[in-house]
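Second attempt. The first submission of Cobyrinic acid ac-diamide synthase had a stray character pasted in from the spreadsheet, which I only caught after the job came back as garbage. Lesson logged: always re-copy from the clean sequence file. Corrected sequence (296 aa) follows.
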Amino acid sequence: MRDQAEKLRQIVQNSRESPSTPVIKQAYNGSSPRVITVTSGKGGVGKTNFTVNLALTLGNMGQQVLVIDADLGMANVDVVLGCSAPYSILNLLEDRFSVDDVVSDGPCGIKFMTGGSGIYQLANLSNVQLQRIINQITLFDNWADFVLIDTGAGINRNVLNFVMAADEVIILTTPEPTAITDAYAMMKAYAGNGGAAPLSLVVNRVQDAGEGQMVVDKLNKATFRFLGFSVNSLGFVNEDPAVVKAVKKQVPFILSYPQAASTRCIENIARKLLHGEALPETKGFRGFMSRMLQSW
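This time the job returned cleanly.
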């Protein structure tokens, strides 16, 4: 496996841009995208719903956004978006498919791809097959401003690999004690594995800003005391019946309820991402793939 991983890393590093397909030719911005993994210690905290609505909000703000559904067990980005995704990353092995075929269009100009389990199956492919796939998917370095990766919940090796490879990490929690405990456990695992990328926190389903700040303070007190760092707060999302209604309609809440409190919260978080502190230079999706392969 180690020899195979070394071959994969070499392929990523040596790969060059292939002739662009039509979708990739649009609006090359000349810089690498920010690759952000969105994760949580506990399931059921609204991670996928948050990721999708954040992507759409960034899209509305003029950003080019690719969402990768990396939940190996319960991939449902397409369900939340109300769009179909008939193909996955492994379909790129077939000559009749290009990256345009496996990436689906969503609202607000965003694109999404089901890729989680397929990414892990790359380890079993031949070099020729790998070269074909990596040349295709890393073309998004020439298109995207943001790549948002929606992981599964929990602290297993698969989730940690996506977390450790990202340029930035957003951890989502709710005010529930079990969710806070599991969020801390994720931060501890991140630190224990040598994580150095910026780590941010979003508290979902809060009654008000005061409750959200209480969760941030509680987690920061624990991380500072036991892990030696503080976590940046990206903001809060209010408990809002509009979110449940939107899920049932399979229309993201920022589209179905643009004036809802939850929508305004997501807009504030998106603005903070866009205009917050300056970050180290990113190496885009190509850099993410290289770091992923180092974990194999």
